[in-house]
Amino acid sequence: MVNMHIPFVNLSRFYSKHKEQILELTDNIGQSGAYILGDVVEEFERDFADFCGVNHAISVGNGTDALALSLTALNVGKGDEVIIPANSFISTAGAVIEAGATPICADVEKDQNISLESVKKAISKKTKAIIVVHLNGNPARIDEIIREFKNTNIKIIEDAAQSIGAEVKGKKTGSFGNCGCFSLHPLKNFHMFGDAGMVITNSFETAKKVKILRNHGLINRDTCEIFSRNSRLDALQASYGKYLLPYLDEWTDRVIEIAEYYNEQFIGYFYTPKTRPSTKSVFHNYVIQTSERNELSDFLKQRGIETKVHYPIPICHQPAWKKQSLPSAVIPIVERQKDEILSLPIYAELTDAEIEYIAKSVITFFNEKNLYREAV
Ligand SMILES: *Cc1c(COP(=O)(O)O)cnc(C)c1O
Question: Is 61 touching ligand 1 by the criterion CB < 6 Å?
Answer without folding.
Answer: no
